[in-house]
Amino acid sequence: MMFVAGETVMPVMGAVFSAAELAENSGASKFLGIPLALIGAVLLAFGAQYQSRGVSKIENTLGKSAGGLSFKHLVSMLRRPSWVVGTLLLGLAVLFQIGSLSLSPITIVQPIGVVGLVVTSVLNSRIAKVRLGKRVKASIALAVVGITAFVTIASFTTYDRVVTDKMLIVILITFAVVLLASLVMYAVTRHSAIALLHIVSAGILYGFVATFAKVLISRFQQEQFEALTWICVAALAIGGLAGMLFVQNAYSSGPPDLVVAGLTVIDPMIAVLIGIVILHEAAGASIWAYVGFGVTGIVSMLGVLGLAKYHPQVSDQGDSAGRVEA
Question: Half-sphere exposure of 14 toward its Cβ, with a 13 Å CA cutoff?
């Protein structure tokens, strides 16, 4: 998961953006967050691997719950060293990601998390001794190439904007609707143990979390500590906890590289969509840039869907579930 905020900018009235603001954000300084985002992506990969190992060990000890991870499973995670180490690494990843967002627009640094997918795929195939077939490798390549092209386009067409109260209210209302829909879906499908459903929900929620982090950084820089800011803090915490719930259930029903693939593609897609539609970060982009966003986004999503369909560990778990049901 990754977040937004750029250099400190002076408030402007409504949605009118001055030429000075465009000039300030068009310099090379907006790329300074990229190294921090890369470090965060690597930490994400190792953290996901350790967390996944912890969940697997707990399920081997307590058995799998028919309705997803039970409260007993969740409590047991706190006593599992591998899960705790993974959580600490993910915490460090978040710190680096927030640092990257304080230097660069969300549309530049958020998609860089896909680097974690490559690292996780290599780690998981070595540790689990699973050979990735041509279709799986092609799916990973699609996700990486798609996001790389996406972030390249975003690097030259998007800029930080001042987040107005009206924009933030729209984001908060949209988040409330999405959160409610995700929880209803979880209640309805929790017995299905479909990894992709959990991953999509987590990715969408973390996309909002990234946006809230960007907004808060901007507001703290501008010393805006009114009630709306603290509502944003609460929304960030709720989204983070709900996303973590979905992620842990995804580890229970899918390999870590699939989980990371979903998060590093869906998360930035949602965050960038919010940045473009609500925050107007691509206000000066041409029609061809928007076409590029659409095409590269579709390519990335096809990579995630292919990974969910062809990954050998997903197939093995599906076969095991079918045998148990039979």
Answer: 2
How many residues are present in the chain? 326
* Planar angle of CA 281, 287, 290, nearest 5 degrees: 55
The pTM of the full predicted model, rounded to 2 decimals, is 0.72
Cα 43 from Cα 190, distance rounded (Å)? 29
DSSP state, residue 31: G
**Helical packing angle, 256-277 and 115-127, nearest 10°:** 170
pLDDT beneath 50: ranges in the chain: 1-26, 315, 317-326
> Quick one: CA dihedral 152, 112, 210, 309, positive or negative?
positive
Which residue matches tokens 């109260």? 165
Q: What angle do CA 186, 191, 193 make, to 5 degrees?
A: 80
The b/e string for 271-303 (b: 16+ C-beta within 10 A; e otherwise) is bbebbbebbbbbeebeeebeebbeebbebbbbb
pLDDT (0 to 100) of residue 122: 76
DSSP character for 12?
-
Encode 232-266 in three state secondary structure: HHHHHHHHHHHHHHHHHHHHHHCCHHHHHHHHHHH
Alpha carbon distances (Å) from 149 to 5, 136, 298: 22, 20, 12
Q: What is the pLDDT of residue 22?
A: 38
Report pLDDT for 130.
Answer: 73
Give the number of other Cβ atoms within 10 Å of residue 184's Cβ.
10
Cα separation, 187 vs 155, in Å, equals 39
| Side chain identity, residue 139 | S
Comparing CA positions, the residue from 81, 86, 93 lying closest to residue 41 is 93
How many whole angstroms separate alpha carbon 180 and alpha carbon 186?
Answer: 10
Backbone angles phi, psi at 103, to 5 degrees: -115, -25
Please, are residues 77 and 59 in contact by the beta-carbon 8 Å criterion? no
According to the model, what pLDDT value does residue 31 have? 74
What is the radius of gyration, based on Cα positions, of the chain? 19
Pairwise CA distance, residues 263 & 271, whole Å:
11
* Residue pointed to by tokens 């002076």: 10
Q: By three-state DSSP, how is residue 131 classified?
A: coil
